[in-house]
Amino acid sequence: MSNASPLLPVLEPEAVAPCCPPLNERPLTADEAERAARMFKALGDPVRLRLFSLVASHEGGEACVCDISDVGVSQPTVSHHLKKLKEAGLLTSERRGTWVYYRVEPSVVAAMGQALISG
């Protein structure tokens, strides 16, 4: 395995498909509110927020589950929380041999931030 990490493209704000418009722009539709709530609810659990942070801040922008499992809960609980983060659209994963590598969904941080920007 190479130590070189692939560079990720920088997304321009208009290239990001936000979950919803900025909250001060207009009221959210029911679908927009549902998508945003699903993402923020997934991050509302301290263990999930910590796992998301570990993946997002990991060198190279991705983390092997073997590198992020020490969060004070059992391995099955870590797997459950990672599954919830994937279901909310916050993480993607890729199996490589016996390990699973997680990466933050490329546009998700920008999209969540865009929803909270005030004008």
What characteristics describe this protein?
Arc Repressor Mutant, subunit A, three-stranded antiparallel β-sheet, WH_DNA-bd_sf, DNA-binding transcription factor activity, alpha+beta, ArsR-like_HTH, disordered N terminus, 119 residues
Adjacency order of strands in the biggest sheet:
1-3-2
Along the chain, the helix and strand elements come as HHEHHEEH
Question: Got a strand count?
Answer: 3
Overall mean pLDDT: 80
CATH topology: Arc Repressor Mutant, subunit A
Q: Could you estimate the helical fraction of the residues in percent?
A: 40-55%
Supply the CATH superfamily name: Winged helix-like DNA-binding domain superfamily/Winged helix DNA-binding domain
Distance between the termini: 45 Å
Can you identify the CATH class?
A: Mainly Alpha
Shape-level CATH architecture: Orthogonal Bundle
Largest sheet: 3 strands, antiparallel
InterPro entries: ArsR-like_HTH (IPR011991), HTH_ArsR_DNA-bd_dom (IPR001845), HTH_MetalResp_TranReg (IPR051081), WH-like_DNA-bd_sf (IPR036388), WH_DNA-bd_sf (IPR036390)
Domain HTH arsR-type: 28-119
Organism: Streptomyces coryli
Protein name: Helix-turn-helix transcriptional regulator
